[in-house]
Amino acid sequence: MADNARIDPRTLKGFRDYPPALAIPRERLMDTIRAVYRGYGYVPIDTPALEYTEILLGKGGEETDKQLFRFNDGGGRDVAMRFDLTVPFARFAAQHIGQLGTPFKRYHLAPVWRGESPQRGRFREFVQCDFDTIGTTSNAADIEVALVIGDLLAALGFERFTVHVNNRMVLNGLLDELGLGDKVGPVLRALDKLAKVGADAVVAEMVERGVEAGAARRVLELAGVEGSNAEILDQLATRFGTNAVAAEGISRLRQLLDVVAASGAPSERYRIDVSIARGLDYYTGTVYETFLDDLVAIGSVCSGGRYDDLASLYTKTRLPGVGASLGLDRLVAAMEQLDLLGDVAERAAVLVVQFAETGLGDYHRLARQLRAAGVEVEVFADPKKVGQQLAYAERRGYRAAIIAGPDEIAEGAVQLKDLRHGTQAKVAEADLVGAVRAVLEGP
Amino acid sequence: MADNARIDPRTLKGFRDYPPALAIPRERLMDTIRAVYRGYGYVPIDTPALEYTEILLGKGGEETDKQLFRFNDGGGRDVAMRFDLTVPFARFAAQHIGQLGTPFKRYHLAPVWRGESPQRGRFREFVQCDFDTIGTTSNAADIEVALVIGDLLAALGFERFTVHVNNRMVLNGLLDELGLGDKVGPVLRALDKLAKVGADAVVAEMVERGVEAGAARRVLELAGVEGSNAEILDQLATRFGTNAVAAEGISRLRQLLDVVAASGAPSERYRIDVSIARGLDYYTGTVYETFLDDLVAIGSVCSGGRYDDLASLYTKTRLPGVGASLGLDRLVAAMEQLDLLGDVAERAAVLVVQFAETGLGDYHRLARQLRAAGVEVEVFADPKKVGQQLAYAERRGYRAAIIAGPDEIAEGAVQLKDLRHGTQAKVAEADLVGAVRAVLEGP
């Protein structure tokens, strides 16, 4: 084809390819995440990438609208690509919960799409890893979510991280008591500036928005509670526990920490943080954010909380629940920065050199024996020079190579090369699986 | 919310949800497929769901165009959702093959979208599982594809299936020799009616389209070759092997079958079938189709072949290759029909009954011990009646339940219930992992 007839190969702005060096660890992480979720009895579901726009937008408003990849399909339907996994889950639950029964614990690992301005490592397509328990208000489900988050980060290879927990009921109870039920939005927006502008400016802003100065000071008092978990619980109980709603929130937080400790999970990783009640509007009870101690700046890598009713837009069946979502691609970026991804560019462990085309039957016979023993094996595609094939194996990060010329095959043996140490030994076929394992598992 | 303000929860025409009963086996199948691909040294890649329409359409023509979910994105770009994994792989290879080097062996499991009329169990969103080796013309790569297909179906639990193989070079060589290089399309379309209308009508149609009667008979002679693999190879060699291109195709087929047999793979599952050269236009060498012996009517579940140049639309780097694609959702439907999916509706093996909320710390301590031993465990969310919790466990297909009231906990013991046999025994905590394993692995 003439050069000028060619199409410039490129991805869309905000989208990216995942070559093996990224796709391999990503796949491994997803396997680990699924295993942790399954370990707690969550089960997978999947939903379509495309939904009716009406379903996705619901009450989501304009900002969400702008982020949608939205169009009319061939049948004239107003459709869009999902922008999260929560809305499709709500729609799914409204349709299927009758058959599935409650409590229903599901996980969903899938890409979502948002047309946001791509920046700071954010892409327009990214994988979310959600898990939720719906159909129960029990604190047991909230506690489990905290345990899952801790297990998840640990299983992914992180040692230094903190799960921040709080309960919206404390703030909600206080605001109710102060008669600020209709001013939650302005109060939270003012509070969010606390670290930047200081307490006095926050009070001033609240007063400007019609909050009495005394009430504003009370809200700030809650926002200022800090210390150890035990100290925070005590202060919350003493200063805010007279309100029944707040007391219930405090009691749930206390039980969460007690059970985490009693379960044997590393309780030093859990911290009550009254500030995280603020950003997560949707939630009504326990809230979670998870920070990597060595990369706090990237923000929470796993967030979630309890909600009163998942699917009220689609069904009158009330579905309270609790869950959280892990952002896979943000986590991969973090692991890249923290050098946790390892240098495993490729996964197959052993290359069988194609010494001569006539040996293919034997090479595949050997490869089958190794695969049956769980070893990943590539038979090289071309009978190139042995040195070229070994260079390929090293570039791919393989640990071992098997070289078998006609003489070795006739003897029922092979040359086994340890690619990390550069050593080589003749091994009888009967001993091959053991010898390969010794190389793979050796230092 | 008032009923009339609710949105009707529904999926788009041609799309479907995957509840756990389908999502669990699907996930397990994908794990198996990835493991087989990795076992041969193929590595994963991923590409965006959305691409420039220009990239996806290439020379694809009108029919493909109609199937596209195509729209203008927020930035005014003409974009579309991928309709297969081959075109994105071609674009990917054109961009990245310089860094990746050849041979490059990749797999890609991902959904694709086509706006076809949904019918006969076909959906507008479905998962394809592709694997390819590019950058080599070696028959070793073709042979490996045949081996992978066989391993794949076996690993997925099929015992009765047949991998049909052929080589386009035999037909291409014959057509060249007959001077029919410019009539390949009409000849193939006529040939496709052979089973329906018989040989004479096919010859008549070819003659009508300007093919000499003698040439038409020769083409039909090739289409009529049948028998055992050895008989077919002999007939092909004797009757068509004088053409160099055809001879090369015959030689490659022979080597494929020889190596499969020598490798120890079940060679009775491989069959030369001259008819499968016809439908697969894109391919230039070895072609593969895979039929389930007990469900031939659903068509090939894994098809592929060798091509001369993957990415000529996007790069002048010539990338010959060979690969195949397994249609996951067609396979799941087949397994459903053949009762191969099993009755495992849920995956967690053990339910810990929530006897009382105060026991949560202990329940989670026990659950952690079991998870550390690789057992999936759910702690029930609510302290409902034990009978209700056990009914939940049975509905979910769990094998065992752990019931631990305050008395048992005080004793350091639990009641372990075998849900399949309805038996129950007191087990010391120290023996719990072993006792649970005995129940899970028992008859």
In short:
Chain A is of the alpha+beta class. Chain A is built from 17 helices and 16 strands. Helix content of chain A is 42%, strand content 19%.
Features:
homodimer; 443 residues; alpha+beta; BirA Bifunctional Protein, domain 2; Rossmann fold; 5-stranded mixed sheet; elongated
Describe this entry's structure for a reader.
2 copies of one chain form a homodimer. Chain A is built from 17 helices and 16 strands. By secondary structure, chain A is α+β, with helices and mostly antiparallel strands. Chain A folds into 2 domains: 318 residues, BirA Bifunctional Protein, domain 2 (2-Layer Sandwich), CATH 3.30.930.10; 92 residues, Anticodon-binding domain (Rossmann fold), CATH 3.40.50.800. Chain A has an 8-stranded mixed beta sheet. A 5-stranded mixed beta sheet of chain A has the order 13-12-14-15-16, sandwiched between helices. In chain A, strand 3 and strand 4 form a beta hairpin. Chain A is elongated. Chain A starts with 19 loop residues before the first helix and ends with a helix. The interface between A and B is large, with 114 and 114 residues.
What's the CATH architecture name of the largest domain in chain A?
2-Layer Sandwich
Radius of gyration of chain A: 28 Å
| Low-confidence region ranges of chain A | none
CATH fold field value of the largest domain in chain A:
BirA Bifunctional Protein, domain 2
Inertia-based shape of chain A: elongated
**Which two chains share the most extensive interface?**
A-B, 114 and 114 residues
What is the CATH top level name of the largest domain in chain A? Alpha Beta
Quaternary assembly: homodimer
Number of helices of chain A: 17
Structural class, from helix and strand content of chain A?
Answer: alpha+beta
* First and last CA, distance of chain A: 51 Å
Helix content of chain A: 40-55%
